[in-house]
Amino acid sequence: MAIRALIIDDSSVMRKIVERSLRQAGIDLSEVFQAGNGAEALGVLKESVVDLILCDINMPVMDGLEFIKQLPGVENAKNVPVVMITTEGSEAHVVQALSCGARGYIRKPFTPEQVKEHVIPVLAGKS
Amino acid sequence: MMAASGNHENWIPLIDTAAREVFELMLSSQLTLPTDSQEKPLDVTAMVGLAGQLCGVLSVRCTGKAAAMMASKMLGMDLDKVGPEISDALGEVCNMIAGNFKNKVSGLSEGCMLSPPTVVTGSDYSLHSMSDSPGLEVRLLFEGMPLNISLQIHS
């Protein structure tokens, strides 16, 4: 099934890499939305429906943790799974992200195989 | 995992490994050791600040051609097609090396924050660091082109 993904990262290069990794992981993307920070992403979600969100943590304006805290307030996105993709790799960050509602956590640098390993279970509702 | 205190010289292999992992995983490229001390002007510099338990700056310096090659490999684009993405790509490489390095040092992963990367183009500048030590430097080759990674430690 083709999915609609929202990729949030302040680096446009990283957004493209994440999109390419999803495709290399065999995930069929019907539409890809992009945002440079959490606030932009909330704006995208007011206009668009997505099935999966991949989100960096360290971003200007609104970081990834604040974004997922605000996500339940967005009517058409409150149940959309979020997978964090970030250089912040400590256990404390992982626990914090998961407690805020993230369903998966990928550390940069990453391979398409790692993206597949973390994203497929989330899409299947197993994580 | 190595502890954050003590002699910082033992962090050099960690910086080396952190850089090699980033290039292998994100650029499918194996960094190699330089065979001579040939000095080429390195005119692109990316810097990421570290604050918290460790304060300092991690920088990555290379030639413009090397930076363009990084963007090309990261994006899967032809070398002659990359343009404005070059600075962004080098900044992300620097950010990932800094993040990967601190995740290898016990206590730094939680206790040290990274700044967004800054990229400077051009070689006609002097960098004055408030560092209280000479800093750590790792010299490698990326696709045969010099790649210098340094960590200036403030405290």
Q: Would you spell out the secondary-structure blueprint of this structure?
A:
The complex is a heterodimer of chains A (127) and B (155).
Chain A lengths: L2 E6 L3 H13 L4 E7 L2 H10 L4 E4 L8 H7 L11 E5 L4 H10 L3 E4 L4 H12 L4
Parallel strand pairs in A: 1-2, 1-3, 3-4, 4-5
Chain B lengths: L1 E2 L8 H16 L16 E9 L3 E7 L1 H12 L9 H18 L2 E2 L1 H4 E3 L3 E4 L14 E7 L2 E9 L2
Parallel strand pairs in B: 1-4
Antiparallel strand pairs in B: 2-3, 2-5, 2-6, 3-8, 7-8
Helix pairs in contact in B: 1-3, 2-3
Structure explained in plain terms:
The complex is a heterodimer of chains A (127) and B (155). Chain A is α/β, with parallel strands linked by helices. Chain A has a single domain, classed as Rossmann fold (3-Layer(aba) Sandwich), CATH 3.40.50.2300. Chain A is built from five helices and five strands, in the order E-H-E-H-E-H-E-H-E-H. A five-stranded parallel β-sheet of chain A has the order 2-1-3-4-5, with helices on both faces. Chain B is an alpha+beta fold and 155 residues long. Chain B has one domain. In chain B, a hairpin with a 2-residue loop joins strand 7 and strand 8. The mean pLDDT of chain B is 89. At the A-B interface, helix 1 and helix 4 of A face helix 1, helix 2 and helix 3 of B.
